[in-house]
Amino acid sequence: MRKKFLTVFIVLWLAAIPSLAAVIDGGAWAEFYSYKSRFPQTQSQLCSLEGLRLGVRDAFIPGLSIFARGRVASDLSHKYASDPDLRVYGAYLEYVTANRMLTARAGRQFVFAGLGGITLDGGRVDLSHKSGLSFTGYAGTTPGLTFYDLDEINSWKKGNAYGGHLKYKGLHNWVFGASFQQRNFMDNLDSQLGGLDFSYADKMCSLFGRGDYDLFQNRLQLLTVRPTIRCPQGHYVSLEYLYRRPSIPLHSMFSVFNSKPYHQVRISPTMKLMPDLYAITSFTFTQLKGDRNFRMSLGGSYLGQSAGFIFSDGYGGRQIGGFGSLSYNVTDMFEVYLHGDIFDYKVDKDELDYTHSLATVLGANCKVVKNLQTRVEVQLLSNLDYKYDTRFYLKLEYSLRRIINESTGGEGK
C-alpha cells in the first residue's frame, strides 16, 4: 500500500513536467553510517538512508501544485525483517486561488493548526478574509501507530482526526486564535483538545502565549508564555514559562496511571559585546512532583564559532561539562568543522564518582559540482558503554530547481 501511495505521486510529478509546470523544486540524497553495536553482541553496522523530495508548482493548471517527500532506510551489513524501511512524510496536491483567499490540500500531509502537529491522510482547507479573519479546517485518517506500520494508510474506523483553527489578525501587531482537535482510535475517542493562542510583535518586543485544555479529562494540558525583549544596542532577553502535562492517548495502557504535570521557567539573556561577538546565557528551573532540576549554560559566539559551559543538577542527576564548535571556509566550495562535547555526570546524586562522556565530530562540507554537495564526518565517542568508539558518516545530496515556463505566473506555495 505504501509503495503504491508513493508511486502514484511520482507518476503525477513526471506527468506534470511537460505540461504547465512553472517551477520544479526537488532533491535526492543518500546517507551512510558505519559504527559498531555492542548489544546483544559486538558487530559492525553499515546503515543507509536514501531520500527524495519533489515539488511541482503550477502543474497542469495555474495554482495547482504537487509535493512529495519520503525516504528508504536499510542495514547493508545485516538484513532485518523491516528492511527496506519506507517512510512517506508527505505526498499531496495543493490548490491556491489567484487571490490567495483559498488553499486546499489533499493527500498525506503534516498539519499544525493551533494545537499539536499531526500527520494525516486526508484534506485541509485554509480560508482567509480581508477583515483579518482566517480559518483552517482538516480531517483525515491517521497512519499506523506501531513501529512497523507507521506509514500504513488506515481506515477511518481504525484511526482518524479532525479539527480546526480560527485566527483573527485585525488588531495592529496582534494575532488571536482558537482551535479544536479530536482524535479517534478503533471507533473510540482517543483525545479531545481545545486551545487558545495569541501573539504580538513589534521592533522591541514580541510575545507568544498558548493554552491547551483536555475536554475529556476536564483539565489543563499545556500553558506557555514566551516574551522576548530587544534593546537598541543589540542585547535581548528571552523568557518562558511552561506548564505541561504528559500527552497520553486514551487507547494507551499508560493513560490509566495518574500522570503529574511539571512547571518550567527559563530566562535566556544575550549580550552583544562587540560586532559579531555575543555572550549567551540560559537559566532553566523545572519543578516536578516531589523533585526539581536546575540547568545553566554560559557561553559565547563569534562569526559562527561558539563555546560554553553547562551545569545541571537535580532530577536526572548531576552534570558538568563544556561544548565547542568551530568551522572554517577553506574556499567557497569547501568548509571544515569541529564539534565537541565533554561531560562528567552521575545519575544518582549520592554516587561518589562521576562518569565521563566525550563526543567529538570532525567533518567537512564540499560542493563537488553545481547542485551536488557532500558531507563527511568522523565521530569519536567515549562513555560508559563505548570506550573510544569511532564512527563514520557520509552524505551525498543533489538539488534541482528549474523554471519551465515563467509566463504561467503560478500561485502554488
Return the structural class.
mainly beta
Number of strands: 22
Oligomer: single chain
- Radius of gyration computed on alpha carbons: 25 Å
Q: What is the share of helical residues?
A: under 10%
Order of helices and strands: HEEEEEEEEEEEEEEEEEEEEEE
Main sheet characteristics: 22 strands, antiparallel, barrel
Mean pLDDT: 87
Distance between the termini: 28 Å
- What percentage of amino acids are in beta strands? over 45%
**Total helical elements:** 1
> What is the general shape?
globular
List segments where confidence is low: pLDDT < 50 over at least 5 consecutive residues: 407-413
Could you write a compact summary of the structure shown?
4% of the residues lie in helices and 64% in strands.
Helix/strand layout:
Blueprint: H1 2-16, E1 23-37, E2 43-57, E3 64-75, E4 85-96, E5 102-111, E6 118-128, E7 133-141, E8 159-168, E9 174-185, E10 188-201, E11 205-214, E12 219-230, E13 236-244, E14 262-274, E15 277-288, E16 291-302, E17 305-314, E18 318-331, E19 334-346, E20 355-369, E21 372-382, E22 389-403
Antiparallel strand pairs: 1-2, 1-22, 2-3, 3-4, 4-5, 5-6, 6-7, 7-8, 8-9, 9-10, 10-11, 11-12, 12-13, 13-14, 14-15, 15-16, 16-17, 17-18, 18-19, 19-20, 20-21, 21-22
Question: Features of this protein?
Answer:
413 residues, mainly beta, 22-stranded antiparallel beta barrel, disordered C terminus
What does this structure look like?
This protein is mostly beta strands. Helices cover 4% and strands 64% of the residues. The protein has one helix at 2-16, and strands at residues 23-37, 43-57, 64-75, 85-96, 102-111, 118-128, 133-141, 159-168, 174-185, 188-201, 205-214, 219-230, 236-244, 262-274, 277-288, 291-302, 305-314, 318-331, 334-346, 355-369, 372-382, 389-403. The protein has a 22-stranded antiparallel barrel. Strand 2 and strand 3 form a beta hairpin. Residues 407-413 have low confidence and may be disordered.
